[in-house]
Write a structure and sequence with these properties.
alpha+beta, eight-stranded mixed sheet, five-stranded mixed sheet, 18 helices, elongated, binds adenosine-5'-diphosphate, binds magnesium ion, DNA mismatch repair protein MutL, endonuclease
Length: 616
């Protein structure tokens, strides 16, 4: 048989490589910004059109390229940054694969203008889908400008796969933040569709963070500084009281390169142990400097993952450094900096958030009521019953899955129910509800019983309420005595602006949305406590960022979902009888009572027949 193996032509190989390197406009932004930094620029400008789908341009004042280099830079594996494999372990540059420009040129229209300082005149090269369209001389300032137009013009499937402009722009801004935060000694500007989004002068690290995230950030930052033989840490963590519901502001840089590391993130979380409200995440902006020989960045083409030789030590040092700072700045009461770092290696249980013991109060309890009597009686009945059950249970342990502990819990939690079961006067009463494990509402119905997930059910109720209010535009609003002034980053304000109309229809009243960084709220929906407003808006912003609302309709839907999620009664919340009944009634008045807004089951029923079967 004839030979069938062929070498792929370069442009095909480049397109394949592009799939790895370029997923979206933000990937182009990252590669171009990093090249500009590697070229030693101290002023870098990023220009974006239509979230980068039409244009991503990066202009730098770095060292530029010679004619030959300019041409060569588009070849695959063409790099000036490493010469042999050993260099991989001595990396001081961002790039090293020599893949980015070749990949980008395979899937877009690229124009490169570049001039070196000692030359009078520069060069411009136009490349479209890996083919050089033109190469000429041009008058241009020292440095390099790379324009990438019409990304994925020759791969329609990839182009269609791109998300809405809002989402793609969000990714672009994220990349821009990461690079700008890693290099406060370089001035960055970003322009989006002709208007300036960021202008970040050369500054110290604190100022850079403040310039990006808004003036209010300044008071949140606690400096972290630690210098050991293996690791140098510098940067800031956010004070615990400013912790966010979302993981937005968490940045690790290793040797000035943004990385993601769940392991190191855990080190920070454990340093904050006991200081954060449940469900919130600390902010951090930390630069780690380690010997380049002790890390391997070569594991992923997009290079946000990294391998450390000695992760355990880094974990311990980082945790101690953060704890030390929190202690020093009087934020954490205990300081255990002297502790042997080896003791600090994480065990799985360390990640578990601490549980505050919950005190439950029966608000309806009145010692002078008749009920006292029956309650006391019930308790004694119950004891008896338990003993009997335990008698039955002996010897059966190995058969059932139910552990003894489960049994105990059931008795404890359903005490009130036991009371009513054994109270002769109430035996006849129909349609009673009770709460199980502060999670489910159990209700008797004609055919048997109904078990409702309180959190999901309430989400459904609120969701339909919000949707209705938004559509009929007549929600009630409660006026605040003092306007609530909330601070957000510039992009977050942009999102609030987009959702402003819908938010107002739910009952919010905004007196002022400043472009800069703050929102003044003078009215809130009646169902929303003032203290929850910032959490709700924060959750909403993060949902919008993550969920891609493509149309107006889906933005409204998302808003209703997000607010319902934030405001719904939580699992673990104890409810009074009338609250339980109200919830059941409201749920069944909904259009789609059987699923939550995210399509999860809200209730199940169990018929007496089914129960009977279980007792065979
Ligand atoms: P890498 O950055 O991995 O080396 P790239 O494909 O991103 O690979 O770039 C190829 C080469 O082109 C670089 O090694 C560098 O020599 C040159 N280059 C790219 N961008 C610039 C720039 N903005 N200024 C100067 N040289 C550049
Ligand atoms: Mg590069």
């Amino acid at each position: 048989m004839a030979d069938i193996i062929q070498l792929l032509p370069d442009h095909v190989a480049n397109q394949i490589a592009a799939g790895e390197v370029v997923q979206r406009p933000a990937s182009v932004v990252k590669e171009l910004l990093e090249n500009a930094i590697d070229a030693g620029a101290d002023t870098i400008k990023l220009i974006i059109k239509d979230a980068g789908k039409i244009l991503v341009q990066v202009i730098d004042n770095g060292k530029g390229m010679s004619t030959t280099d300019a041409r060569l830079s588009f070849e695959r594996h063409a790099t000036s940054k490493i010469r042999n494999a050993e260099d991989l372990f001595q990396l001081h540059t961002k790039g090293f694969r020599g893949e980015a420009l070749a990949s980008i040129a395979a899937i877009a229209h690229v124009e490169l203008k570049t001039k070196q300082e000692h030359d009078d005149i520069g060069h411009v090269i136009v490349i479209e889908g890996s083919k050089v369209a033109s190469q000429e001389v041009v008058v241009t300032p020292t440095g390099t400008s790379v324009s990438v137009k019409n990304l994925f013009f020759n791969i329609p499937a990839r182009r269609n796969f791109l998300k809405s402009d809002t989402v793609e722009l969000r990714h672009v801004i994220d990349e821009f933040h990461r690079v700008a935060l890693a290099h406060p000694n370089i001035s960055f500007a970003m322009y989006n569709n002709g208007s300036e989004s960021f202008n970040l002068p050369i500054s110290n690290y604190r100022q850079r963070i403040v310039n990006i995230f808004g003036n209010k950030t300044n008071e949140k930052l606690v400096p972290v500084e630690e210098d050991t033989e293996v690791l140098k840490v510098s940067g800031f963590v956010g004070k615990p009281e400013f912790a966010k519901k979302t993981r937005g502001e968490q940045y690790f840089f290793v040797n000035n390169r943004f990385i993601k590391s769940a392991y190191l993130n855990h080190a920070i979380a454990s340093a904050f142990e006991g200081l954060l409200k449940n469900g919130t995440h600390a902010s951090y902006f930390l630069n780690l400097t380690v010997d380049p020989q002790t890390i391997d960045i070569n594991i992923h083409p997009t290079k946000t993952e990294i391998k450390f030789d000695d992760e355990h030590t880094l974990y311990a040092l980082l945790r101690s450094a953060v704890k030390h700072s929190l202690g020093q700045f009087n934020i954490a009461p205990v300081l255990d900096f002297e502790r042997d770092p080896n003791l600090d290696t994480p065990y799985s249980y360390k990640g578990d958030a601490s549980n505050t013991p919950k005190v439950e109060i029966d608000r309806s309890f009145n010692p002078f009521q008749e009920e006292t009597h029956s309650r006391a009686k019930a308790v004694s009945y119950k004891k008896e019953a338990t003993e009997n059950w335990e008698g039955l249970y002996v010897g059966l342990e190995s058969k059932g899955n139910t552990s003894e502990q489960d049994f105990e819990e059931v008795h404890f939690e359903s005490e009130e129910c036991t009371a009513s079961i054994f109270d002769d006067n109430q035996v006849e009463q129909k349609n009673t509800t009770y709460q199980l494990h502060n999670k489910y509402i159990v209700n008797t119905i004609k055919s048997g019983m109904l078990v409702i997930d309180q959190h999901r059910a309430h989400q459904r109720i609120l969701y339909e309420d919000f949707l209705k209010n938004i559509t009929i535009k007549k929600a009630a609003s409660q006026q605040l005595l003092f306007p609530l002034q909330l601070h957000f980053s510039k992009q977050d304000i942009e999102i609030i602006n987009q959702l402003k109309d819908d938010l107002e229809h739910t009952g919010f009243v905004f007196s002022d949305v400043k472009e800069e960084s703050s929102v003044a709220i003078t009215g809130v929906p009646v169902s929303v406590p003032e203290s929850e407003v910032s959490i709700i808006l924060e959750q909403l912003i993060s949902d919008v960022e993550n969920e891609v609302p493509d149309s107006n309709f889906s933005a409204t839907d998302l808003l209703a979902k997000s607010m319902a999620k934030s405001l719904a009664i939580k699992t673990g919340q104890s409810l009074q009888k009338d609250e339980q009944e109200h919830l059941v009634n409201k749920l069944f008045a909904c259009k789609e009572p059987n699923v939550s807004p995210t399509n999860r089951t809200t209730f199940i029923t169990m018929s007496v027949d089914e129960l009977d079967k279980k007792f065979i």
